[in-house]
Amino acid sequence: MTSQGYDRGTSDKTLFIKRKEEDIIPVQVYVDDIIFGSTNEEMCETFEEIMKSEFEMSMMDELNHFLGFQVKQLKDGIFLN
Amino acid sequence: MDKCKSISTPFSTSYHLDHDVAGNPVDETKYKGLIGSLLYLTASIPDIMFVVCMCARFQSAPKESHFNAAKRILKYLQGTKDVGLWYPGNVSLSLTGYSDSDVAGYKIDRKSTSGTSHLLGSSLISWQCKKQSCVALFIAEAEYIATGSCCAQTLWLRQQLNDFGILLNKIPILCDNTSAISLTKKSHYAFKK
Question: Domain limits of chain A?
Answer without folding.
Answer: 2-80
